């Protein structure tokens, strides 16, 4: 058992992990995290992941809330946009590349995130995701705060309309699971509940801000002592009509009136013209995305100046052309969410063997044929569904030889470097170190 090897380099003192040999831990981390992720026994898996997460914290990679930095951004925008990166597949390898680039470029302001839907189809529960990310930090020698985020913890409209209590309880349970796994950044998305049939904008937004307030109070009630979880809200469902100042004010004013739980929201997601994954043309290529940067700038300014938030958040941006990313810092955007673009690099890499790619696509066509929409070409169907090829085939992805994974990671490294530069998060370790003080919350290690 590879996790056992790490025990040679650490010791338990009063139930807490103390690292004796950091280099030794790093050398065996690849095998240890693989062993934990693919343990077929759920209880053993949980015990191994918890142990490795404690090892990571003892090595100096500490799950943290970005709240302090975002409060500083609310007072004085520092001129950069924080990338929030969703990793759907090859998570350990991809996280290693991100940390490697972060160390090279002195990046401290970056977030690792996973959405409610991704947790399902990538088969990465919160404990696994946070532990794999932290293990990658240790492997690369990254120390300091690591920001892990629950992205789009969304109330699904059709489920909510069918049974509001059950859907709310599900999201509440997911939040509890994530906070227990040390996700200290949570984005609540109840924008799906906005009711445009109501007579005023505030009444339209009421189901949204009331549900956000309810779930935010739940977060404040379960967060560990000494940590203020960074909480995000959302006013415009991504892929729908663009947001406007009246909606922003109605939502934030309503939230303030409703929320009774200490610190409120740190940021606000808005809609400015993107859609998740991009718009796929019949030949499988992507339509050009047009973001309304003027709207993004105006809304970020209002959020910051009138409400003290860090600014606005842009979703669905990873498929934008490289030439567009410099606009986010220029418009005062506080955070940008990036996912599909990295998935595309992996799937479309010339280094990914054709037979393996076809194996994944055949699996998708067989298992998800019911997801094919009327009028979709096969290329459109594959593009929009291939994100679901990571979870059920996770072990096959991880088992790809290093000769395959290595060159793909080099392609990703180039993209991360470009993004870090365009978003101006290079040399942000200092401001993160000044505004975020990591708090280590020890978890009991048992069964190892």
Distance between the termini: 11 Å
Helix percentage? 40-55%
Give the overall pLDDT as a whole number: 94
The strand order across the widest sheet is 4-5-6-7-8-9-10-11
**So what's the CATH class of the largest domain?**
Alpha Beta
> CATH topology of the largest domain, what is it called?
TIM Barrel
Provide the gyration radius in Å: 21 Å
CATH superfamily of the largest domain: Aldolase class I
User: Helix and strand succession?
Assistant: HEEHHEHEHEHHEHHEHEHEHEHEHHHHHH
Strand count, sense and closure of the main sheet?
8 strands, parallel, barrel
**Beta-strand fraction estimate:** 5-15%
**Which secondary-structure class do the elements indicate?**
alpha/beta
How many DSSP helices?
19
Number of domains: 2
Oligomer: single chain
Give the low-pLDDT segments.
none
Briefly say what this structure is.
The protein has 448 residues and is an alpha/beta fold. It is built from 19 helices and 11 strands. The longest helix has 22 residues.
Provide a descriptive summary of the structure in words:
The protein is an alpha/beta fold. The chain has two domains: 57 residues, no CATH class; 317 residues, Alpha-Beta Barrel (TIM Barrel). It contains 19 helices and eleven strands. The strands form two sheets. Strands 4-5-6-7-8-9-10-11 form an eight-stranded parallel barrel, surrounded by five helices. The chain has a two-stranded antiparallel sheet with strand order 1-2. Helix 9 crosses helix 10 and helix 10 crosses helix 11. The termini are close together. The model has no long low-confidence stretch (mean pLDDT 94).
